[in-house]
Amino acid sequence: MSLGDDNDDDGFGGSGQTRTRLPEGDAPRRAPARSSRSLITVVGVVVLLLAAIAFANTGGGNGDAPTRDQAKPPGTASEAPTAATGVPPVTGRTGNIPSGFAHDQQGAQSAAVNYAVPLGSAEMFTASRRHEIVDAVYAPTVAAARRGDLDRVYSDKGFLTRIGLKEDGTAPTGLTFISRVIPVGSKIESYSSDRATVAVWYSSLFGLAGEGSQNPVSESWYTTIYQLEWVSGDWKVTDFDQKDGPVPVGRDQAASGAEEMADAVHQFGGFTYAR
Questions:
Q1: What is the pLDDT of residues 133-189, one digit of tens each?
Q2: Rounded to a whole number, what is the largest CA-CA distance in the chain?
Q3: Has domain 88-267 been given CATH number 3.30.310.50?
């Protein structure tokens, strides 16, 4: 649960063209005119070459790039930090929260990432929805105790006042409450057949959007370490610990206006499945 606080320039290099330097001195001699047959042959070779490159870039070749079925196992992301890893997502649901994760390291990471999203959402500020989330993501042995702990936090009037919400956890009239977790990556800290420790790195948007907000939406970065247990055919949370960062360098982008930010939360839906 996170309560609080890159946009690179286009990272393309050169145009890919090469520059030919003519030899200094006398002007080059004019080459003899080629026959139309030679010209057609050259054009045909170029077209075939371009087609082969395009085909390879769309994954149609038999190159060394891993396919979905050949995806690299967890822990090898450093070789291709921007490449997605994993197998197709689960199809099970507990409410609207994914369930039925694979009984392996990847399944544990997927579970932790997908549990982080609802645990950091604005729905946690609504008692009935909070209880559904807790029951869906926590192991039965700790769910009841965790519900009580979270109820005390989310119903604390002082806490709600500090973040600008009303006593029932809703936003004041004219304002939109935003609380979202956006996972960036995950890794296994430790793993056994029935227990896993997974670190999830994510950014968080939190605050009130709208004219006159005293707690405008801001961005924060956190890493949460989830303790998971294999229970009744699925990974469930037993405990977690949160720490700040890693925090990237901020860019000099101008902050959006209150109205634009309020509109964004309605126009851009959150993800229902991560990783």
A1: 999 999 999 999 999 999 999 999 999 999 999 998 999 999 999 999 999 999 999
A2: 89
A3: no
pLDDT of 253 strictly over 60:
yes
Residue (of 103, 98, 104) closest to 75 by Cα position: 104
Locus of tokens 């690179």: 8
In tens, the pLDDT along 177-218 reads 999 999 999 999 999 999 999 999 999 999 999 888 888 999
Tell me how far apart the alpha carbons of residues 152 and 241 are, in angstroms, rounded to a whole number.
18
The one-letter amino acid at 176:
T
> Of the spans 73-77, 87-91, 100-104, which averages the highest pLDDT?
100-104
> Per-domain residue ranges for the chain?
88-267
Rounded Cα distance, 244 and 184, in Å: 14
